[in-house]
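Serine protease Do: structure tokens wanted.
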Amino acid sequence: MKRFVAFILVALLGWNVLLTIQVFQLKQETVPQTDATTATNNIKQASVNVTSDVTKLVEQSENKVVTITASSRGQTIGTGSGAIYKVEDKTVYIITNNHVVENGDVMTVTFANGKSVESEIVGMDKLTDLALLKLKVDFQAESFIMGDSSLVKKGEYVIAMGSPLGIEYQGSVSGGLISGVDRRMEMDIDNNGVADWDVNVLQTDAAINPGNSGGPLINMAGELIGINSMKISDESVEGFGFALPINEVLPIISQLERNGKVVRPILGISVAPLEQLSPFERAYLGISIQQDEGLFIVNVSRNSPASRAGIQVGDVLLAFDGKKVNDVKQFRQYLYSKKVGDKVTLVYEHNGKEKTKEVTLK
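Answer:
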């Protein structure tokens, strides 16, 4: 009996030793390897080809965007961007900003494929800051589809393309939202510190930097909806870029293509705000010190529609074709919304008496 009990104890002891050895081996197998080579082998690198609507849009658009280098007397004086507007056989038409090309005598256009071609200026318009270039190429070029900027909505995603800071950054892409539509921006055309004109613009927070001027603002359908033109540069603001809406660009570009310039109607008067007149000047001209409506007529061109209507220097223009005028920019907007040959009604004050005349713009 004692031998049997001893045998059982020895068997149990042996079994415990065997279990202990197996547990130890199992732990060794599950302990992480610290060997550098083994650790490296355990790291897996994902390989993902990222494609999105935006990357496809960029791929479809980049060949339609160009860099424009303006030179004068053999020296580069500035760079900008452009959007291919139309292609006829091997002739390429490019929209850009007037300020990109106005001071240069040689314009070199560099395409996305790296080819550079000298271009001619078809026409420029300082008032709207637009210009049209034309050149011939020996490769297949592609133009943008024109969008409808009247359909652009606040919050819509857009991309801007161009060459910020020069040709070395050609084809740069920035994206953002339409921050506002139908914004009005003042422009000082003659750089005298006084705003001469208001332009309607699309506001976007897509980054627009020097060199982006004249480049395209593109919607998610790949359509050209604006020409990037300006930004507000100030330490206190960020993401204030502006583009000329394509619906307002195309009529100007069409005139440049046809005539080499924009033909605007002429009335034949120069005007100034009444507040610019001193009390002495008002008294001399017979204008009441209390009168604050209308525009003072400072010049009348000979043989102009205004002069033939009997309007004289010193008269006060009160209304243009049924609309009151108290601001020079506002008056220009009303005038330039008409066409040559249109008849308009003028209401003005002459020697203290109100008169009405119909004139034909030329």
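The helical segments are 2-30, 36-42, 53-61, 98-101, 246-259, 279-285, 305-308, 328-336. Residues 146-259 form a domain with the Thrombin, subunit H fold (CATH 2.40.10.10).

Cheers.
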